[in-house]
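Reproducibility note. Readers wishing to regenerate the assembly model reported in the main text can use the exact inputs given here. Chain order matters: entities are listed in the order in which they were concatenated for prediction.
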Amino acid sequence: MSSIVLFGPPGAGKGTQAERMMQATGLPQVSTGDMLRAAVKADTPTGRAAKAYMDAGKLVPDEVIIDLIKDRIAEDDAAGGVMFDGFPRTVPQAEALESITSVTHVIAIEVPDERIVERICGRYSCSGCGSVFHDTFNPVPSNGCSCGNWAEKRRADDNEETVSSRLDAYHEQTSPLAEWYRGKGIFHPVDGDRAIDEITGDILDALKA
Ligand code: ADP
Ligand code: ADP
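Running the prediction on these inputs yields the following structure tokens for the assembly.
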């Protein structure tokens, strides 16, 4: 089994691109952020362990995340590989991943910090299907989401206060991973400060490399 990692700062467009790449690659999206939010909502032990970190815009401890991923990867639909979105976020997580699945491509969606606040503060999604939208850059169609179950959902942590801690966590703990993966020859940077479809095209090209 071989997997892909979508890497980048919060709000870079990882989830947006994962939605589009699922069809092209046939790989299921595995978003640790989505899994953690579901665990918080269901008030599971994992959710209780993660909530305070998420509310503060800090990274959830590695052992919680690694256990979550091990369970997810054991599911049937992951047998042919997955597309990781928001995982790994630390070098210890990446090291643990090496013993779980082989990663063929790390796609780094690069967006400057000054763009991130507007991206995150304008983000909303469809609670029916999870599709991601933006107030200005990618609004939902006027007749609602194409899934037919449109209801708007906004994340509690998508506000200016937590964005700065999330960016700090990214620069301090996650960005060193770029060098780690570059050294392995599987790192593909993509300019994420462009139209959504252009970025999808670049990612598809990178996956052919
Ligand atoms: P991530 O999963 O990396 O946190 P998202 O995919 O949720 O990022 O995108 C963050 C916000 O930015 C969403 O509101 C999304 O609609 C918007 N967005 C995504 N890609 C682009 C882009 N290329 N240009 C402008 N806005 C974008
Ligand atoms: P973003 O859209 O900002 O990239 P995510 O939905 O991926 O956010 O993650 C939301 C929050 O969940 C993070 O701020 C962090 O607290 C936690 N989280 C998600 N994935 C991880 C991970 N791999 N390691 C540690 N914490 C994580």
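We highlight two features of this model. The longest strand covers residues 102-110. Strands lie at 2-7, 29-31, 83-85, 102-110, 123-126, 132-134, 152-153, 187-191.
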